């Protein structure tokens, strides 16, 4: 039957909104992709094509171009190309790979372009191929195998194994955030997002619009490969998730992988505002939530108020050493937004510093000596000679990377907000807190011993 004839029939249009018909794993120039056909990864894990998230039909139905899990019954989309420009009232939507090596989504009757990739002109001298890999990554490759574009560089709401969330990056790569769907049936960008802090490049946030929901600890330079095991349920699979923070000359990024025998596993920013680790249960045929962030009210951003901190081992709010609840009545009733106040006012530069180990350092810091190496003593001096400085933290970010040390000196001159006690967890910091009654000279002597006596 002729394709144009099919698209004119409303009854048949319903079928076009469903991901049907497996095909090969690639798209080539001259062979466009239409609704109803899909490109499937070589191992059958992922499919790429047109979908309708609400399964609605008729003139007002919206089509999207995306990637989803191909071998589970619940349609779960992991990437959307045209999430801001849905296909509506178009007779013949079509995706083509052009001779300039770009994917172009348009109306086949000569209508407007709804979405396109941007491949550098210098890379497009020969026809290329768009391949859906077994990882769920859609890649445009030149005839010589060079990667010209990949969907993994253009985040939507899902963080798949092998993807990168870049904290620091150069002009040749994309940073970006994971951004939630607007609702279960609407892939357009929603309220919530997850990604690196563009101001400091040292921490990751979960945002509600521009308001922080949760924040990680500031990066301490660890080259981590942190394996964590999760059990789906009493009868389900055990999944090992290997998280890593990688630092090289071009970028700092977060990535992860899962054990080879694990079921489908993904991180996702939900439309309701959680960052969840989900795995597909082949027993119950549902997505199980293995963990989510924030996991408790205590570790929501600023929950314990100024100079309060979340003790994650309990979890509960406490006051930093030398502080007490600003309102004892509110604190005893479980309301912590007022935070804590000093028991004794600072005298100024004559006060010393108390070392608080195993801390998630507060937000709102200033980065001292960016792009140059400093010593722990220089960092202490930077805060000590500034009578408005209330705390500082120091770390060596160089790790085993060649080319010398890369250090990090943070200082705080305002209220300390969103602090936590995380113990000896990877990436914990020592926070040096200025307190009344501590002798400045003695504090400096103890500080020097802390850095060198632990070696």
UniProtKB/TrEMBL annotation:
Subcellular location, principal: membrane
Coiled-coil residues: none
GO cellular component, one term: membrane
EC number(s) on file: 2.7.11.1
Recorded GO MF terms: protein serine/threonine kinase activity
Record's signal peptide: 1-23
Iron as UniProt keyword: no
SMART domains on file: B_lectin, PAN_AP
Keywords: Disulfide bond, Receptor, Signal
Reactions catalysed according to its record: L-threonyl-[protein] + ATP = O-phospho-L-threonyl-[protein] + ADP + H(+); L-seryl-[protein] + ATP = O-phospho-L-seryl-[protein] + ADP + H(+)
Top-rank taxon: Eukaryota
Localization of this protein: Membrane
Protein name: non-specific serine/threonine protein kinase
Lineage: Eukaryota, Viridiplantae, Streptophyta, Embryophyta, Tracheophyta
């Amino acid at each position: 039957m002729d394709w144009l004839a099919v698209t004119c029939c409303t009854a048949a249009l319903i079928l076009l909104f469903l991901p049907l018909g497996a095909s090969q794993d690639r798209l080539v120039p001259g062979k466009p992709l239409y609704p109803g056909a899909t490109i499937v990864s070589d191992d059958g894990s992922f499919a790429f094509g047109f979908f309708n998230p609400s399964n609605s039909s008729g003139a007002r139905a919206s089509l999207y171009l995306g990637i989803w899990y191909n071998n589970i019954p619940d349609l779960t989309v992991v990437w959307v190309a045209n999430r801001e420009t849905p296909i509506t009232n178009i007779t013949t939507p079509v995706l083509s790979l052009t001779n300039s090596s770009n994917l172009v989504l348009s109306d086949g009757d000569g209508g407007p372009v709804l979405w396109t990739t941007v491949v550098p002109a210098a890379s497009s001298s020969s026809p290329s191929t768009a391949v859906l890999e077994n990882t769920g990554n859609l890649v445009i490759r030149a005839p010589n195998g060079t990667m010209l574009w990949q969907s993994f560089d253009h985040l939507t709401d899902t963080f798949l194994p092998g993807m990168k969330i870049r904290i620091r990056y150069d002009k040749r790569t994309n940073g970006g955030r994971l951004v939630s769907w607007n609702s279960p049936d609407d892939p357009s960008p929603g309220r919530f997002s997850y990604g690196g802090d563009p101001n400091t490049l040292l921490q990751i946030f979960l945002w509600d619009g521009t308001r922080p929901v949760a924040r990680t600890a500031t990066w301490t330079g660890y080259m981590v490969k942190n394996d964590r095991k999760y059990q789906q349920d009493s009868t389900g699979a055990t999944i090992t998730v290997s998280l890593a923070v990688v630092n090289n000359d071009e970028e700092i990024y977060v990535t992860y992988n899962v054990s080879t025998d694990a079921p489908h596993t993904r991180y996702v920013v939900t439309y309701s505002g959680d960052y969840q680790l989900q795995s597909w249960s082949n027993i119950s045929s549902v997505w199980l939530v293995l963990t989510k962030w924030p996991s408790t009210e205590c570790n929501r951003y600023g929950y314990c108020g100024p100079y309060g901190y979340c003790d994650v081992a309990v979890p509960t709010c406490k006051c930093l050493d030398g502080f007490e609840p600003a309102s004892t009545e509110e604190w005893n009733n479980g309301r912590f937004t007022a935070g804590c106040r000093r028991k004794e006012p600072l005298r100024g530069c004559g006060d010393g510093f108390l070392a608080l180990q195993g801390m998630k350092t507060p937000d709102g810091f200033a980065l001292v000596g960016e792009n140059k190496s400093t010593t722990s003593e220089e960092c202490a001096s930077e805060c000590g000679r500034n009578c408005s400085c209330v705390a500082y933290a120091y770390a060596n970010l160089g790790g085993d990377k060649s080319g010398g040390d890369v250090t990090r000196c943070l200082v705080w001159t305002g209220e300390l907000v969103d602090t936590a006690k995380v113990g000896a967890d990877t990436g914990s910091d020592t926070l040096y807190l200025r307190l009344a009654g501590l002798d400045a000279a003695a504090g400096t002597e103890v500080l020097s011993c802390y850095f060198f006596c632990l070696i």
